[in-house]
Amino acid sequence: MIKSPLQKARSQYIPKLPQSLEESVSLITGEASESVADQKAIKDMFPHTYGLPLVTFAPGEFSENQILNVGVVLSGGQAPGGHNVISGLFDALKKLNKKNQLYGFIGGPDGLLNNSFIELDEDIVDEYRNTGGFDIIGSGRTKIEDEASYDLVIGNCLKNDINALVIVGGDDSNTNACVLAEYFKEKNVGIQVIGCPKTIDGDLKNDFIETSFGFDTACKVYSELIGNIQRDANSAKKYWHFIKLMGRSASHISLECALKTQPNIAIISEEIEKYKLTLNKIVGQIAEIVKKRANKGENFGTVLIPEGLVEFMPSIKKLIAELNDILASKPEYYLLKTNQEKRALITEALSEESAKVYSSLPDSFAKQLTFDRDPHGNVQVSKIETEKLLIDMVTDRLAKDQSFQGKFNAQNHFFGYEGRCAAPSNFDADYCYSLGYTAALLINAGKTGYMAFIKNTAQSSENWIAGGVPITMMMNLERRNGYVKPVIQKALVDLKGNPFLVFRSKRKEWASNTSYIYPGPIQYFGPGEVCDAPSETLLLEKESLLQEEPVTV
Amino acid sequence: MIKSPLQKARSQYIPKLPQSLEESVSLITGEASESVADQKAIKDMFPHTYGLPLVTFAPGEFSENQILNVGVVLSGGQAPGGHNVISGLFDALKKLNKKNQLYGFIGGPDGLLNNSFIELDEDIVDEYRNTGGFDIIGSGRTKIEDEASYDLVIGNCLKNDINALVIVGGDDSNTNACVLAEYFKEKNVGIQVIGCPKTIDGDLKNDFIETSFGFDTACKVYSELIGNIQRDANSAKKYWHFIKLMGRSASHISLECALKTQPNIAIISEEIEKYKLTLNKIVGQIAEIVKKRANKGENFGTVLIPEGLVEFMPSIKKLIAELNDILASKPEYYLLKTNQEKRALITEALSEESAKVYSSLPDSFAKQLTFDRDPHGNVQVSKIETEKLLIDMVTDRLAKDQSFQGKFNAQNHFFGYEGRCAAPSNFDADYCYSLGYTAALLINAGKTGYMAFIKNTAQSSENWIAGGVPITMMMNLERRNGYVKPVIQKALVDLKGNPFLVFRSKRKEWASNTSYIYPGPIQYFGPGEVCDAPSETLLLEKESLLQEEPVTV
Hints:
2 copies of one chain form a homodimer.
Chain A: H1 5-10, E1 25-32, H2 39-45, E2 53-59, E3 69-74, H3 82-96, E4 101-105, H4 109-114, E5 117-119, H5 122-128, H6 147-159, E6 164-169, H7 171-186, E7 192-197, H8 215-236, E8 240-245, H9 252-261, E9 265-266, H10 269-274, H11 279-295, E10 301-306, H12 309-312, H13 314-329, H14 339-349, H15 352-359, H16 363-371, H17 386-400, E11 410-415, H18 417-420, H19 426-444, E12 450-455, E13 465-470, E14 475-480, E15 483-488, H20 498-512, H21 528-531, H22 536-548
Parallel strand pairs in A: 3-4, 3-6, 6-7, 7-12, 8-10, 8-11, 9-10
Antiparallel strand pairs in A: 1-2, 2-13, 4-5, 12-13, 14-15
């Protein structure tokens, strides 16, 4: 494998650990925990893993336990830092006992089912320290959700003498980790399960998990690009750039990038949903800002758009649901030849409200809603080019607006894959390494059904606190795909939280003025304030928290 | 203006100058020059600026001349480093004589015509050192090409006591700079004109200009993103990523990024043109590689596509020309309702050869060719989504290929605006600063009709050689828009050059294996091999040159 000069230099980086973990540690056991909601139901579903105490590690006596054979699984979409979770896990296991072994299951949860794994030895782990991607063992999206599968996993673990699993994933995968932990405990098979909080979307966080790993790096990559584009916009002075960003279930990425780059407009889906804003209303608001800037001679700007936007607009959500039904029940639609005929057939079948929305959509978007369907016959929302839709509709709106004297030319962008596998920032490199390290300590302490956590991450790493939180503590009941299930609560953008409030207090100024910030590329070797800063979201959240109450575990 | 931590840290960077420029310099005059071709005609067109000698600067006696009032113009598309050309120019002017002044014309050549400028003093220049973008004074694409305009420029310069202009631009703008220099000399108005070689596309280079500025940085940004996407492809193992890159007239960017990242496929337009490859042939070749990788279980990959590809395919070029004529002469086309009818009308009017090509195109692409037309009725080639076209056609091809057992899912990307205004790499920061510095020295030496150059740029900056090359020396006659004009020869990818040959020798291996390199983001503070390396293209070109003959001026 040929390595770039940066890869070579970066492979020498030694991630910072919380000071409390640098020597041997002892376990501090806190109070028994409760789930965030639906306590009775969650307790009934997880009799063996409910109510466990929060635990933290502090410098102390080192207690060597049995020899640990640990399997690690990367689950779901890639996030920067996954390889450092593995290197932290590896280093801690070897520090605890040289005979401890780490195995990596190949291709995500499938590896557990197929008994497909490799031994992760020093050579392999060294090759991947501080690199991006999940390519060391690959990832996958398979869900292990029936007893036959649980038993298969047990069989494979026992066959290979594996006594603990570390599952690195988002809210779904960690919920799944807890289900496995519960089942293993019920069956008394002696296999522990520890989770690690991963997702660039940033929507796996709560009182215990300050941030999910990868969010910091991905947002830094996107912000680099947004900054570059803003510099271009402000130099050429002739384009509006509509930039869609990953984040289907929540808009943390858009909010973080907005705080970092100060664009003219950033849409936050959670706000759209709360105030039931229609597409037309959003288009109108963008058009107003375009006009205002045009009046000052500034025919350029930037708009950040979260990927999941259309699903947060109640009217579009309703329209999509109706379209799914109509197209399933009217196969004659596909025989019609002209667009006009097709739209007429659909319009007739829609409710009055949805028909109105539908008639306001440009042809291209209307087609995306009716053409691209997944195997279940549903609209593939992720394929909807919201950024182009907004450009088309704003163009249309301004063309009809005789008071608009400016120019409106737009470019569209979508950033997602550019950031998911970036090499981790120092923050994510340190954070992930510490999470992996902590996961090993939790296993060594005999814990199961826990998620590794690192707190105080807005401060420098010497003050970080490491520990474990019972996964059941983060759960509530939610209806998903028609069933009520115990799941980890997704963290949407808190419209009363400091990050959003700061954004809201400034966005009017950002809209009319050109207040762009240019963050530039992630740096690894420079001054601390350039290389080590955590996300704006984290800093602002902690700022408000510090005002309310001191951070304790 | 709020600055990011990196902007603040980076503003302290002191660009490296060629050692020969660090103290006072004297001018070394070389032999009289000749143009690269059409010597007689170019000489007739440029009687006052033809045949001037190549000049270089060496340590020596400092000769103070008259007080210099210099105007600088940024022309055409943005390129990283423009601000450093200005800071180099400023610092050299002030070093020569504290009374020298620098003025920046606003919004490109328009500023010269409108007499719109600002004084660039220390405060302003300091604000923009080592930053990306052209926003210090803006840029523009206006061409100054008739005598009335030349006279307007003279009037404005004389009015403001400006005795020299520095024009920062690509081949067109520098040709224009030379036309102005010639006219000013003919009119004996005492206004000098010096050019600087700018373009991220890398197609302004020759024996004297080793590289155009901005190319290095832009390619590094694109390569960062391609590397990240490749890491994602290799982790998720489920997508082929089709990545279009800027570069309409030449494929240097695609070639450089390929050398940096080792993708599975990189298309070089110049090769397509030379071997008259059709779209179908290209699609067939991509499909073959997809199949080969699928047979090894690798249903993922990357394809780099230069923006100008379709214009290099003779058959598509011919088709586009015919379509332009047909649509201009058959307005009834626009009254037809169905796609089928439209395609039938066009097919009938096309030549047999073009009809065959047209019938092979997917609907979406056929529509782009016939719908989006510029004000002159021509297809807007830059809006053609070649990356999507190739995905559609490869999908189609594989669907019909019963021997294909793999999966083919693709994502498309286009990178352009992400890199044009990035903050310059150390190479571009140093190179641009030195170019600006040299431009001031050329003015001080009384030169006009020259382009500033820096040679030996593949070596460390202490060995760089600074000088000026007569712009006429790079000219030949070409037919452009129906007229034969003197222009600076565009440098296409040399199919016999070392960069392409190295690429060609490796691409078979890159296609079937997964040989990705992950360059990561531009670094400013780390080890030299990470921060200071010039482009692969430059290194490989110089490598072959060194084998043939030593570099001399």
